[in-house]
Amino acid sequence: MKVIVTDKCQGCGVCEGIEPDVFVLEGDMAVVQMNPVPEKYRATVQEAADSCPEEAIEIEG
Ligand code: SF4
Ligand 1: distance of its center to the CA of 7 in Å? Predict the structure, then answer.
């Protein structure tokens, strides 16, 4: 799957707290560490997307 953090991100760090292998804060935005993201991360990436207060995480595929 492809994972995108849009410019709605406010850098709260919730996603990094849920899945730090995929999401890392750089400055005041979360950055996706790999694309495509391996399937083994799907559950936690989905949880991060569902938990993001800005709805800034998009999953494709
Ligand atoms: Fe950005 Fe959402 Fe991650 Fe917070 S949870 S750092 S707003 S992508």
Answer: 10
Distance between CA 19 and CA 32 in Å, rounded? 10
Residue 56: which pLDDT band, with cuts at 50, 70 and 90? Answer: very high
**24 Cα to the center of ligand 1, angstroms:** 10
Q: pLDDT digit string (tens) for 9-53? A: 999 999 999 999 999 999 999 999 999 999 999 999 999 999 999
Q: Which atom of ligand 1 is nearest to the CA of 51?
A: 5
